[in-house]
Design goal:
- By secondary structure, the chain is an alpha+beta fold.
- Helix content is 25%, strand content 36%.
- It folds into 2 domains: 121 residues, no CATH class; 39 residues, no CATH class.
- It has 4 helices and 8 strands.
- The strands form 2 sheets. Strands 2-3-4-5-7-6 form a 6-stranded mixed β-sheet.
- The protein is elongated, with a radius of gyration of 26 Å.
Length: 177
């Protein structure tokens, strides 16, 4: 199921104490989100919801893997994911999100955690994601090397001096003498 309904937690129906929820999210769920970075994956999410008189603590444990493009060769690569995250939720007059607290409209009484789970996963992906050495697309690496060699085959960096600096070079030699 990739419906957002799957990940809506009806907070009003939860009894005080601990409630454990588990979800398996696959390719269909990632595709339903229509996001660019992660299009596929296989993720298991365990949510422990602790309800007290005034608020809810949601502890998420997310693990599995997602498929993302390699920054170097652009081929798909599998990125392992394992993260633990927490949300604190309370009832209020209208929905709002703060850094530490989510307020859910008391009349509605439910919280859709789909986007939070996606953000937890996306924040767990390293800024630079590349295949392990030797696993990148060999044809793409060859093209990259050819273009890199073409770019650096011009003038040597040390011999190419901006002529505006010549005056300063003369000044340096005068000062040394």
């Amino acid at each position: 199921m990739c419906s957002s309904e799957l990940l809506k937690i009806d907070l009003k129906d939860l009894k005080e104490g601990l409630t454990a929820l588990e979800y398996s999210l696959g390719d269909a769920w990632f595709e339903s989100l229509d996001e660019d970075e992660i299009k596929r994956g296989n993720i298991r999410v365990r949510i422990n919801v602790r309800r007290t008189e005034n608020y809810f603590e949601l502890d998420f444990h997310t693990e599995g893997s997602v498929v993302i493009p390699c920054d170097l060769c652009l081929d798909d690569m599998e990125q392992p994911i394992e993260t633990d995250d927490r949300l604190v939720v309370k009832f209020g007059e209208e929905y709002s999100e703060d850094d530490d607290l989510i307020t859910v409209d008391e009349r509605e009484g439910s919280l859709d955690v789909a986007w939070f789970i996606y953000e937890f996963i996306a924040l767990n992906i390293p800024a630079k994601h590349v295949h392990t050495p030797g696993k990148c697309n060999a044809a793409m690496i060859k093209v990259l090397e050819e273009h890199s060699a073409t770019r650096s085959s011009g003038e040597d960096e040390e011999t190419a001096v901006d002529p505006r600096w010549n005056g300063l070079e003369k000044l340096k030699t005068i000062i040394k003498d």
